[in-house]
């Protein structure tokens, strides 16, 4: 496996799948998409703040896709890209962490009626919410790992 310590040039093309921070692109893409799908498949009342969770998951999904294509095409060879990479991933960490906490809180508050009146529909929504919380925290962890390694790469450049 190639290391990010060899040179200060960002990888391009297929090499992004062999360097540590950039190997996180595909898992970020997958888990972010799962959060988006799981939150979108539940019933959302009007007072529910899951709009922020949807914004974060869609925003990070689209930006990670764009970031992946920029890296694949080799358009990331300017000296500003290491700082942009670290900055974007730290913003994604803050966004996903705030969305994960909000999603966990909403899931917890929605569990109260479930204990009193269990129904198959409420149980299904609760399980989808739990899955979304788990995927959201995994996506947060992946973005955090990517941000740390991107910051280390930025410091070396």
From TrEMBL:
One of its GO terms (biological process) is myelination. It comes from the Eukaryota. Its main location: membrane. Coiled coil: none annotated. Keywords: Lipoprotein, Membrane, Transmembrane, Transmembrane helix. The chain crosses the membrane at residues 25-44, 50-74, 86-108, 128-152. It is a multi-pass membrane protein. GO terms for cellular component: membrane. The keyword Ribonucleoprotein does not apply. One of its GO terms (molecular function) is structural constituent of myelin sheath. It is found in: Membrane. Signal peptide: none annotated. Residues 16-155 form the MARVEL domain. Belongs to the MAL family. This is Myelin and lymphocyte protein. It comes from Seriola lalandi dorsalis.
């Amino acid at each position: 496996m190639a290391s990010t310590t060899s040179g200060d040039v960002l990888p391009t093309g297929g090499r992004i799948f062999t360097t540590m921070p950039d190997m996180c692109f595909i898992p970020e893409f997958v888990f972010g998409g799962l959060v988006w799908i799981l939150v979108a498949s539940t019933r959302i009342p009007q007072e529910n703040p899951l709009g922020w969770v949807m914004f974060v998951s869609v925003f990070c999904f689209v930006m990670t896709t764009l970031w992946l294509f920029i890296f694949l095409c080799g358009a990331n060879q300017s000296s500003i890209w290491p700082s942009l990479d670290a900055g974007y991933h730290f913003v994604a960490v803050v966004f996903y962490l705030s969305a994960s906490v909000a999603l966990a809180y909403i899931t917890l508050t929605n569990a109260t009626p479930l204990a009193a009146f269990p129904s198959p529909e409420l149980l299904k929504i609760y399980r989808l919410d739990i899955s979304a919380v788990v995927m959201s925290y995994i996506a947060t962890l992946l973005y955090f790992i990517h941000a740390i390694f991107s910051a280390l790469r930025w410091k070396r450049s």
